[in-house]
Amino acid sequence: MRIQRTLSPTAALIPLQHLLRAPLGLFSGVKYRNQLKEGLQDRFSAHAVFLLSSGKAALTLILKALAAGSRRRRVVIPAYTCFSVPSAVVKAGLEVVLCDVDPETLDFKFDELKSLVDGDVLCVLSAHLFGFTADVARTKRLCREQGVVVVEDAAQAMGAQSSVGQAGTMGDVAFFSLGRGKNLTSGTGGIILSFSPAVTELIEAEYRQVPEPPVHETICNWIETALMKVFIHPGLYWFPAGLPFLGLGETKFYTDFPIFRMDELRACLLQGWSDRLDQMNRERRATVRRLMEELGLGERDARTSAFSESAYLRLPLLMRDRSAKASACKRSREVGAGISPNYPATVQDIPQLAGRITVRPVPGAQDIVERLVTVPTHRFVEQQDIRKLDRILSGEGSDHDVPLHGRATADQSRHRPCAAPLK
Ligand SMILES: *Cc1c(COP(=O)(O)O)cnc(C)c1O
85 and 401 in contact (C-beta within 8 Å)? Predict the structure, then answer.
C-alpha cells in the first residue's frame, strides 16, 4: 500500500447534506420512491418505471418477465461486457448467446448480429459501454422482423444523449445501474424503464413478487455509501485501493445476488438526481476534452461532436498491444493514476460459463480485452494527474523493452480513443 494521491477509475458524488439527511428523511412521511419514479417518468417519458436493488437485479427481472411471455430462451449479449450481464441471463434461467464487438465502436458487429437474430431469440441487449451511445436503432431494425425485443443496457450511460435520443429511451425496455462506479449512485440500485404496455404488464407481474430489502441491508448500504463518499477523494483513495479484500474494480460472475425493491433510504439519497447527473456528466465531458487535447489523442480521429452527446463515464483507449496495456496498468498502479484494465476476459472465457455457451471466435472482443484501458474522467482529475497520465501513456519510465511509440508504424504509433459511433 502506497500513501499517495490516487485516482479512482470512476466517481459519482453524493452531496453530504443528502447523505446526512437521508436517514431523517425516512421519518418525514415523504414518499421518496414515488417522487423518484415520477421524476424518471418525466425525464425519460417511460411507460412505466420500476425501482430495484441493483442493475443486475433489474436486468434479471426484465429477462424473467420477457421469458414468462414467450417460449424463446436465447439472449444475445455483447461478447465484451460487464460480467453481471451473463450472470443475470443465467439467473433468469436463459441461454447466453454472444455476438462479437467492434473495437472501434464498442458496439455489435452488425453482420454477425444479423446472422444470430432469429425466431428462437427472446431479446438482444444493446449496451452503451463507458457512456458511449450504441446504435440501438440499428439493432432494433434487425430485431423487429423477427419479433425480438431490444433491451437497452444503459447501466453506464445514464444521462447520455445521442442524436436519436437519450440512452435508456431507445429500446423496448431499458435499465440503469446506480452502483458505485456509475454515472449516478445510491451505493447500489437499479432502475427499469419500460416503453411498451405489453412489457410493462409482464414486468408488473414479476415485480409484485419482489420483496422489500431487509432493514440491515438498507443500513449497510447507507454506511458503505458514506464510507465511499469519504474515501473516493484522491487524498484518501490509496487506502481502499490497497485493501485487496474489498476487490474494488473487480468484475465477478455470480448468480446468488439478491433481488429486492429499492428502499426509501436509497430513493431519498437520490433527491435532486436529474440536475446532479447532468452536472457530473458535464464535468466528465470537460475532463475528456482536456485529456484529448493534452494527451494528443485527437490527432487521428477525434470525432469531437461526440463530446456534446456521450456521458463519458470513462475514456476508453486502445493501446498498441497487450504488453503496452500491461505496462500502462502497472505504472498506473504504482503512481495512482486511475487507469483501469477493465473486464479481464471476454464473456466466453468466464470459467463458470464453460459448457453453458457455444464457443465461437470473438476476435473483436478478444482484441478489446488485450488492448483496452480506460482513463478516469471525473471531477477529481487535475492537471498533475493529466501530466502523470501523459507520462504513462507515452511509455516514459516504463520497463518495457520497446518504447511504446518505438517501432510502430505511423498509424499505430499512439494509443487512441475508441470512437463513439456517431449517427
Ligand atoms: C454495472 C453494470 C451492470 C450491472 O449493474 P449493477 O448495479 O452493478 O448490478 C450491467 N451492465 C453493465 C454494462 C454494467 O456496467
Answer: no
The number of C-alpha atoms within 13 Å of 289 and in the hemisphere containing its C-beta is 15
207 is written with which cell numbers?
415485480
Angle at 297 between CA 294 and CA 303, to 5 degrees: 120
Which ligand 1 atom is the nearest neighbour of the CA of 57? 9
- Any ligand 1 atom below 6 A from CB of 190: yes
182 Cα–ligand 1 center, Å = 8
Q: Can you state the angle between helices 363-371 and 322-335, rounded to 10 degrees?
A: 40
82 close to ligand 1 (CB < 6 Angstrom) = yes
Cell of 246: 474489498
- What is the Cα 64 distance to its own chain's centre? 21
pLDDT in tens, 245-272: 888 878 899 999 999 999 999 999 999 9
Rounded to the nearest whole angstrom, what is the distance from the C-alpha of residue 135 to the centroid of ligand 1?
A: 19
Label residue 35 exposed, middle or buried (CB < 10 Å: 0-12, 13-18, 19+). Answer: middle
Q: CA of 406: how far to CAs of 238, 298, 317, in Å? A: 32, 20, 18
Q: Helix H segments across 244-362?
A: 264-269, 273-294, 298-301, 322-335
Reduced to 3 states (helix: H, G, I; strand: E, B; else coil), residue 333 is helix
Q: How far apart are CA 186 and CA 262, in angstroms?
A: 10
Provide CB contacts within 8 A for 375, sequence distance 6+.
291, 314, 315, 317, 338, 339, 389
**Distance of CA 189 from the midpoint of ligand 1 (Å):** 10
Assessment of whether the complete model's pTM goes beyond 0.70: yes
Tell me the per-residue pLDDT of 202-224, one tens digit each, with 9 for 90 and over. 999 999 999 999 999 999 999 99
d(CA 127, CA 131): 9
